[in-house]
Amino acid sequence: MKRIFAIMALMISACKGPSYAAQAPDFKIAKVLNAPVTSVKGLKDLKGKVVFLDFWATWCAPCVASLPHINRLHEALKGEPVVFIAVTDESTDTITAFLTTHEIKSWVGIDQKESSFKAYRVNGRPDGYLIGKDGTLLARIFPASLEEKEVRDAIAGNFKPKPVEWEDTKAPAVKPETVKTIFEIKISSGSGKWRMSSSQTKLEMQGVPFLNSIARIWDVEDNQVILDTKPVDSLNLTLKTPPDGIEKGREVLKTAIQSVFNIRVMPEPAETNVFVLTLSTSQGAPRPKPGAPEAGEMGLMAYGGGDLVGTAEMPRIARALWSSLDRPVVDETGLKGTYEFDLKWKYGDLTEADRVLAGQGLILVPARRTIEFLRVTPAK
Amino acid sequence: MRPAIAVLLILFSWPAYAGHVDISLLSARDTVQPGESFTAGLKFKLNDGWHVYWRNPGDAGMSPRLEWRLPTGWKASPMQWPAPMRLESPPLTNFGYNGAVILPFTLTAAPDTRPGTRVSLRAKAEWLECRETCLPGSAALTLRINVERTSRERADDAAAIAASLASVPRPDSGAIITAAHDGNNIRLRLKGLHPLAEFFPEEPGIFENTRSAVSVSPLETEIALNPAPGSKIPSRMEGVLIRPGFNPVLVSVPVSADGTEARFFLLAFAGGLLLNLMPCVFPVLTFKTLGLLNRKEQNTTRTRYEALAYAAGMVLSCEALALMLLTARRAGHTLGWGTQFQSPWLVAALAVLFFFAGLSLLGVFEFGARWMGTGSSLSAREGRIGAFFSGVFAMVAGAPCTAPFMGATLGWAVTRPAGETLAVFGALGLGAAAPYACLSSWPALIRLLPKPGAWMVLLKKLLALPMFASSLWLLWVLWQLLAVNPPPQNALWRQWSPEAVAQERAAGHTVFIDFTAAWCLSCQVNERTALASSEVRAALSRDGVRAFRADWTGRDKSIEAELSKYGRNGVPLYVVHPGGGPAVLLPELLTPGLVLDSLAQLKLKGENKP
């Protein structure tokens, strides 16, 4: 019986008090100004004191506007076991220049490595966190709203911890919509000026000539399309799909186009004069420069005419060269991965094109190969 | 996913994070010719209350930046900046944009691109978006353009970019702006009357960024700018000037050392000249001219000496007034132009004086004819003494009137060393004396006047009317001074007090203050003309506008203190605080148009030009 009471007492005592709260994330601040210490190596350095972390920057107007308030709190609580640290990720020079025209009474933390910013997942500033004497995370409080009473409560150990939630800032903001399009295909006769746009959920064309539309939808070069019939001069087209559904949507679109216009789009391999793109075998020949695409940066910036600029895989490069050389180009380099190019030559001057490509260790060899064309015929 | 998909025509960026702004690249052209230049823009569409910054962010902030990765031969010009807004979040002031803004620039296609080339122009945009918190933002943006033999427009984007280009400030054509400093602050002077003009400096850290005080004089508008703490007076003013109803203008002018003293001497002289046209002095001037015509002989030398004596009378009375003001100042009292009328004794004495002057004109008796120098036969010496006293009388009569330029000039003069004060008041006297002195010194001018005749007697009798009117009016002033009247409670005009004004300003209301006095004729005229017009009354009764009247008929230390805060020591003074902001001073003579301009509704903070 005694044991049951003892356990119950323990449980009850555990129910009140901050021991339920999470431990505040630990952090390092490489340099501290305005303080008796020169750096903070961890929360353990500040054990026994209430800590208010105020994340700010000199370029943040609301942060600068709330500094006088923190100064006032610092003065009002002088002598108490509390530390106010205004942490920024700017350089010491910037901060010392700022301090010549602005007064900060609290500690100023300079955390250029952003260890504390990452630990507290700081996204927008100002942002503030109240930490108890024992290192528990008590609350996330907007610096301009911090009240003296709250700090005094924390010092006395009476502050009831409030759970801190961090927004997932990596997720895109969801715009509230009453009706959400799940899937849409719209095909109409072409009108207006030639426009095209696409994203990961949408493909849109306006006033695009029929041949070019087929090429875009089947994702081939314009020169690969052979039209035996032309049901319309140009098309307006909309394809909307759920995220990551653009590929499936494209397949549905292909079926729709063929049925709507009563055509068949068939791959037709044909042997034709091509250039084969291969690597030079001579001793000490250079090699194409590997590309390091950042998200959204991959892709060719310019091609066609006498340009080849951008980062892409070799098959794509070969296709791009097709529009510059007016002859299909087939990739037989055997290279995997992406490569970066920034080449320019006079359109039509094959000698110069050869020379420029040789500078990347690539050569074009005339040959005959089978290329897959697309033939558009009336359906039977 | 085939890599080709990633290359597909991307007109909108995929943002690196979720924020409060939609950012995109716009182009005026769908296809361009090789070598063609075309306009494009970086568009920010901001959620409610969020803002991005101008090229000079103000007290704290970061301007948007755009970094291009272009194919060889392609060029991108630097971004241009549409006219910004002032974003006040006390104690800081920033400059930036709300709602939506397009920062335009020019792209030029490489001249050796073959028609048929498809080009992707890549850029990395970085900015800071703030409301009550600040988030740095960045995005990778792409603009896809085709190079063809013909150029094709992208209609709605082209229109949006053109609209944004129209709001980019252009250089000042017509040299309407000058800048001068007086050691403490810089005064930007623009031609025309613009009560709500604002200046935005191009570089941070040179000026205080809060909205400046504006002073409107009859000819020009003056904006007073203070250097930022710890900063010296710059040698050039670079920035943007925004005047409601006009296109924003680029300002780039040198800052000259102010010839303030010379300027104020000239203004005092001009004020004196204009005083002759005011109803106080004009009758006296006419009266003197009559006397001139009345001479039996025209002795040029004699009249010249008399003109000098007249001028001396005016100048010396001005100097006497200046000495009184200075002495009173040293003793801690504030005296100003017209404050002699706050003393009931003086008012009574003047009422009597004008009454007798009127009687004299009517011919009841020849009172003061000698003193006025209008007696038909006077000795030369008597003539000079008479001329002298008529000059004194004219200045006394002129006291209730405040001519344009006088308010600021005299207010400045009493703050200067005694020598400068006396010089400025002397210039006032000279200006006031100049018309009659010139007239009486040049016989040619006198010959232009109508020949003497019976009409002169009639005119003299008619001039008695203003004298009697002045006497009656002074009696009315005396009654205002002595009677314990509560100020008339007017629904429109509230009683002024510094606390009431501060309260309304804190609430963001537009405040209009009329500093007036019963003995100030110019004040009474303004109140019955410009301020009484129906449109002005309507504007003053609008929601968010408060009108105050400060009555300085009798002594009032708080009004004196308030006037000296604006560098004045006389009435009328009209002060407007647009939206509760810093003071805009209006000139001594009001027009309804000017009052309405100064009360024009300010743009609400949430709006912005598209």
Please, could you describe this protein's structure?
The complex is a heterodimer of chains A (380) and B (610). Chain A is 26% helix and 31% strand. Chain A is built from 9 helices and 18 strands. Chain A has helices spanning 2-15, 61-76, 92-101, 115-119, 148-156, 210-218, 246-260, 314-325, 350-358, and strands at residues 31-33, 50-55, 82-88, 107-110, 127-131, 137-140, 184-189, 195-198, 202-209, 225-227, 234-240, 263-279, 289-290, 299-304, 307-313, 329-331, 338-344, 362-378. Chain A has a 6-stranded mixed sheet with strand order 1-4-3-2-5-6. The relative contact order of chain A is 0.10. Chain B is α+β, with helices and mostly antiparallel strands and 610 residues long. Chain B has 4 domains: 3-168, Thiol:disulfide interchange protein DsbD, N-terminal domain (Immunoglobulin-like, Sandwich), CATH 2.60.40; 177-258, Immunoglobulin-like (Sandwich), CATH 2.60.40; 262-482, no CATH class; 493-598, Glutaredoxin. Mean pLDDT of chain B is 83; it is low at 1-18 and 604-610. Chains A and B meet through helix 2, strand 8, strand 14, strand 15 and helix 8 of A and helix 1, strand 10, strand 11 and strand 12 of B. Strand 14 (299-304) of chain A pairs antiparallel with strand 10 of chain B.
The count of helical stretches of chain B stands at 17
User: What is the total domain count of chain A?
Assistant: 3
Instruction: Report the C-alpha radius of gyration of chain A, rounded.
Output: 33 Å
Whole-number tally of structural domains of chain B: 4
What overall geometry of chain B do the principal axes of the alpha carbons give?
elongated
CATH architecture classification of the largest domain in chain A: 3-Layer(aba) Sandwich
* SS-based class of chain B: alpha+beta
Overall mean pLDDT of chain B: 83
**Major sheet summary line of chain B:** 13 strands, mixed
Fraction in helix of chain B:
25-40%
N-to-C CA distance of chain A: 91 Å
| Strand percent estimate of chain A | 25-35%
How much helicity do the residues of chain A have? 25-40%
Radius of gyration of chain B: 32 Å
Under CATH, the topology of the largest domain in chain A can be stated as Glutaredoxin
